[in-house]
Amino acid sequence: MKKKILVVDDTAENVDILVELLSKKYDVMATLESTMAIEMVKENKPDLILLDIMMPEIDGYEVCRRLKLDKKTKKIPIIFITAKADEESIEKAFDAGGSDYVTKPFKPKELLARVSKELKAQKLINQLEASKKELELLSSTDYMTKLYNRRYFIETANSCFDLAKRNSTPLSLVMLDIDNFKQINDTYGHKVGDDVIITLASIMIDVTRKSDIVCRWGGEEFLILFPQTSIEGTLEISNKIRQSVEAFALRVSKRKKIYFTISLGVCGVDFNWDRDIESCISKADDALYAAKRNGKNCVIS
Ligand code: GH3
Ligand code: MG
Ligand code: MG
Ligand code: MG
């Protein structure tokens, strides 16, 4: 797909020359009014902007500054193209956030080369950002379930703990574990065991809110952090998860469906007693152990 370029210049003749030159390779839009430029950028999301400086109403510097202040438009590279050739103007253009500076009258081949260089640089930046996101995701989630991993959970839970303590807002924690999971593995095989884990993960995601942190703590053990949620609310949602799991029929072959259950231990954080998230996790773990002793498929706080 052709890259999109927006030309902003108040002189129609300049616009015509630029559009003619760039249209061979790019999808070009243009405006003579600087006041229109920002709206056009937001609407059309060009890959690059060629921006004149001297324009009535708002000048090129200001257009550039405004675009760089907006999260949605700040990454679009801007090449200033202007008759102003003095050092101060050039410095000001880069200060405003410009990526490059070309003086009029420009040399067509040089301008095309600069445009191409800027678009390539932008492509590299986008690729880098995508890999960074990918890495962040890989380092914070569990491959099999796509839930958060232990490392991410501890980090986030610690900040939630500090924030809740400072703001005196409730915070709860649930540790849960699949009942008789070894037996599921032994009876139906490891692959079905994995499917049980993946099913449980998606049930937890469905029942909880986006702001809750659902984590695969270990093999078939999970932790959920409920920010701004009292123990009563957490008990309610824990039972909802427990019931949803109990009611879910997992197809393991053409003719066979299996059911499984989980046990849950709930800890409502008490900032008078609980010093850190680790001690709360340990309390949730104790409650989970009690739920197992109590016969499993239940919630204990
Ligand atoms: P309880 O009801 O007391 O929790 O008993 P359980 O059988 O669920 O608990 P136990 O700790 O004895 O067994 C857990 C098993 O989970 C042991 C381990 O091989 C299995 N497991 C851990 N991670 C995975 C996994 O990713 N996939 C599969 N299929 N099994 C796993
Ligand atoms: Mg002008
Ligand atoms: Mg276990
Ligand atoms: Mg288990």
UniProtKB/TrEMBL annotation:
Keywords: Coiled coil, Phosphoprotein. The modification 4-aspartylphosphate is found at D52. It catalyses: 2 GTP = 3',3'-c-di-GMP + 2 diphosphate. Its EC number is 2.7.7.65. It is an enzyme of class 2 (transferase). The keyword Transferase does not apply. One of its GO terms (molecular function) is diguanylate cyclase activity. Residues 114-141 form a coiled coil. GO terms for biological process: cell adhesion involved in single-species biofilm formation; negative regulation of bacterial-type flagellum-dependent cell motility; phosphorelay signal transduction system. Gene3D superfamilies: 3.30.70.270, 3.40.50.2300. Residues 4-119 form the Response regulatory domain. Residues 169-301 form the GGDEF domain. GO terms for cellular component: plasma membrane. PANTHER family: DIGUANYLATE CYCLASE DGCM-RELATED, REGULATORY COMPONENTS OF SENSORY TRANSDUCTION SYSTEM. This is diguanylate cyclase. It comes from Sulfurimonas aquatica.
